[in-house]
Amino acid sequence: MVLKEDPTLIHFHDPELPPMGISLSKKGFKVVYDIHEHYPSVILQKHWIPYPIRKTVASLFDKYETRCVRKLAGISVVSREQLSRLITAHAAVLPNYPDLSLIREQIRTNSNHQSLRFVYLGTLGPGRGIENMIASFLLFLEKGYTAELRIIGHSNSSSILSLVEEAVRNCPSIKFYGRRRYIDALKLAAECDVGLFLPPISKSKEISSPLKLFEYMALGLVALLSDFPTWKAEFEPLDCMIFADPESPKSIVSCMVNLTNDSLFMQQKRDNAMKNSEKYSWEGVAERLVSLYQDIIRR
């Protein structure tokens, strides 16, 4: 199909496709590889790969991917840190920013609920921290607080799906909405107060560009985030989020309590989230991708 269309430039994303990219490059096509994560560390979290060979598989993919990049016309990445291992003459750093105009339409205009609403919006899978989010929320309720936790997203993991469904059965304050259209998911999240994103520590997450954070900010939610040093250094000065140890329910609950007990603290962070979200818009970086394409095509 690609050969039939005879495109000027080809842009692909999936990490399974570099062999196809190299093949097309050898046929004279200009190919761009779009890399959103540090895939060697992602491989280390793949539980379907037997543990004894996981490091070997990750190391082999690391070497393979870095070699492939040198044979392609260019790459796009989501953070500058990724370029330390991916050497190429043409690269664009395109953070994972959302379309603000789309999100702004979903912002709620009133706040009628009495208790806090927490929300997790995204894939439910290994390495996302959903287990500790649920455990922390239940501990929070045990302290006598009233709140709601909304979980919005799909899961390909039967064990995590079972965990979520069991939590919903046992706790009426936990609502599971499953997979929703993007706009519908944003509307549900916009009715909340605090957005949760608490993945356990991993190099892939630490150097990522966390789309969920930027979506939460654009909706005017306080983000409760993993206390990765890189995230704290970049985002703490914005004063619109709060950080917790993602593997410590006690730390997460402490943050939930602080947000519940100090409404002025909460409102200030929500106001700052909305204000600072303007810096994290796709419209502001889209031109970088156009420039990358133009540079490659002119070669």
Explained architecture:
With about 300 residues, this protein is an alpha/beta fold. Helix content is about 45%, strand content about 15%. The protein has two domains: about 1-95 and about 280-299, Glycogen Phosphorylase B (Rossmann fold, 3-Layer(aba) Sandwich), CATH 3.40.50; about 100-280, 3-Layer(aba) Sandwich (Rossmann fold). The protein contains 14 helices and ten strands. The strands form two sheets. A six-stranded parallel sheet has the order 7-6-5-8-9-10, sandwiched between helices. A four-stranded parallel sheet has the order 1-2-3-4, with helices on both faces. Strand 5 (about 115-120), helix 6 (about 130-140) and strand 6 form a beta-alpha-beta unit. The longest helix is centred in the N-terminal third of the chain and has 20 residues, at about 50-70.
CATH architecture assignment name of the largest domain: 3-Layer(aba) Sandwich
Unreliable parts: none
How much helix, percentage-wise, in residues?
40-55%
The first-level CATH class of the largest domain is given as: Alpha Beta
Distance between the termini: 25 Å
CATH fold category name of the largest domain = Rossmann fold
Mean pLDDT across all residues, rounded?
Answer: 90
